What we know:
Organism: Candidatus Electrothrix aarhusensis
Number of strands: 6
Subcellular location: Membrane
Structural class: alpha+beta
Number of helices: 3
Domain NfeD-like C-terminal: 95-143
Pfam families: NfeD
GO molecular function, one term: peptidase activity
Amino acid sequence: MEFVSPVLIWFLLGVVFFVTELILPSFILFFLGVGAWCTASVLALTDVSLTVQMIIFLISSLVTLISLRSWLRSVFHGDSSKENDSVNVDSTPSTGIVTEAIVPPGLGRVKYGGSFWQAIADEPIPVDTVVQILERKNLIVQVCPLRIEETV
């Protein structure tokens, strides 16, 4: 029976963590993969017991998780602490067109800025109505029908 190197086992375990992170993004498994690769690196340099291997794995995973998670999350997901989640879309009035009727309290759809957005309104708005974009909350825009004031 052939013996499999512990370095190879830890390296492959790291690869499994990285691939699983790609499939199920939680941004925790990445750090377990880093811990497994740190353990493989130590084992490549010296021979240590399984208990010491587990300690190296846990410590390196936790240290990288604590020190790098918030920084890497801002790199990959953007830094949301610099702006409020509920922001005005533009300082200038923007308009869109209703593509799916909006019937409060439900959602409709609006074509705005070359994209389709889910939309809410305080009043029912039929399809093909030109609307003013009031506010954006995440991926939902709040709209109202565009009213053209007549000057007499």
